[in-house]
Amino acid sequence: MLQIIDSTQKLDSSFLQALQARLQAALEQAAASLATHAPTLLHKDIELLLCSKEYMHSLNVDFMGKDYATDVLSFPLAPLDFARDSSGLDFMPEVPLGSIAINLPLAQMISEQYHHSLYDELCLLFLHGLLHLLGFDHERDNGEHRALESKLIASLALPNGLIDRTLLP
After folding, report:
1. Which of 73, 63, 64 is nearest to 103 (CA)?
2. How many CA atoms lie within 13 A of 45 on its CB side?
3. pLDDT tens sequence across 12-44
4. For residues 76 and 98, is the Cβ–Cβ distance under 8 A?
């Protein structure tokens, strides 16, 4: 289950309901595209925190040692180690997948800068953070995170994602 928390209290309930539906569709598309992670994505709780620039700054300092307000951070709660039950089927312990924090004011600014909707920007940031929750890391891998993110973005007809935007002139 995806739970959205708007700690900024700047979004109305109809926007949050539409966002919930949009992100749930993105989650289902991600599960279909990432078959090995489908059980995790469809059966694990994920928290999405929409927060202020100041709160994101403090999270980035406290957890990443970086003194600025970034756009998205992911906090996995447990390693994604699959285990086998007695029937030989894969299962996961009943632990939430983790939390994704998104800097709402920065997302609003970026959506305006790139001329797309706030829904699209939040979806892009959510997918980026989701891949981090699943263990992908564009700063350390050989392009796997970028490839998966690009595949998901294309399947959802979203604009360029975070990694691609940093590579474009």
Report:
1. 73
2. 8
3. 999 999 999 999 988 888 888 777 666 666 678
4. yes
